[in-house]
Amino acid sequence: GGKSRRRGKNDADPVKRELVFKEEGQEYAVVVKMLGNGRVSAKCFDKETRIAQIRGAMRKKVWINVGDIILVSLRDFQDNIADIILKYNPDEARDLKTYGELPADTKIEDNEAGSDEEDNDIEFDIDEI
């Protein structure tokens, strides 16, 4: 490809997808730490901390960060290792929380919004000019 191939595609707002719930042998988790080499440390909602492997179809296509809510597939032969099969965006994670799938105290980080709310407490006095 040429110049248009290098620029990439303009996929700013993906199509709304159907919400996927956990099944037998799967668990919701939050990413605690990036370990490198396609692995993350994930705190599952069954109170277990597992090393989760990003599956091949998600590598270099779906970017996973600390604080993301993910769906992991548990291994029957290794309890401390799991495979990441889906990353929930913040809207989907909020929906899971309202359906009662996630605990009520789960903190959902909205990384894509680029929220700069630290500067909200600055006040200006116009009368001093």
TrEMBL record:
Domain of life: Eukaryota
Keyword Protein biosynthesis (UniProt): yes
Keywords: Initiation factor, Protein biosynthesis
Name of the protein in its database record: Translation initiation factor 1A
Lineage: Eukaryota, Fungi, Fungi incertae sedis, Zoopagomycota, Kickxellomycotina
